[in-house]
Amino acid sequence: MVKDDFASSDKRGRFLRRLRDKACGLFSTTPSPDYNALHYDHFHLDMGFYPICS
Predict the structure, then answer these.
(1) In this structure, are residues 3 and 37 in contact, taking their beta carbons and an 8 Å threshold?
(2) Burial call 26-46: b when 16+ CB within 10 Å, e when fewer
(3) 53 by DSSP, 3-state: which?
(4) Do the beta carbons of residue 54 and residue 21 sit within 8 Å?
(5) Per-residue pLDDT in tens (0 to 9) along the chain, 54 residues
(6) Beta strands 29-30; 52-53: pairing state
(7) 3-class state of residue 4 by DSSP
(8) Largest Cα–Cα distance of the chain, in whole Å?
(9) Which among 32, 29, 36 has a CA at the least distance from the CA of 15?
(10) What is the DSSP string of 9-42?
């Protein structure tokens, strides 16, 4: 689960952070759990107008 593993230093956490980082190249808006409290449990992948990679 994103909310349980994203901040972890184990392989699941590293995988989720890599996934977010790679998504930044495909989507213009990619807030993740370290962006704000509203995204604590998911990735927000969007082709929106505001470039955010966090």
Answers:
(1) no
(2) ebebbbbbebeeebeeebbbe
(3) strand
(4) no
(5) 899 999 999 999 999 999 999 999 999 999 999 999 999 999 999 998 889 998
(6) parallel
(7) helix
(8) 34
(9) 32
(10) SSHHHHHHHHHHHHHTTT-SEE--TTT-GGGTT-
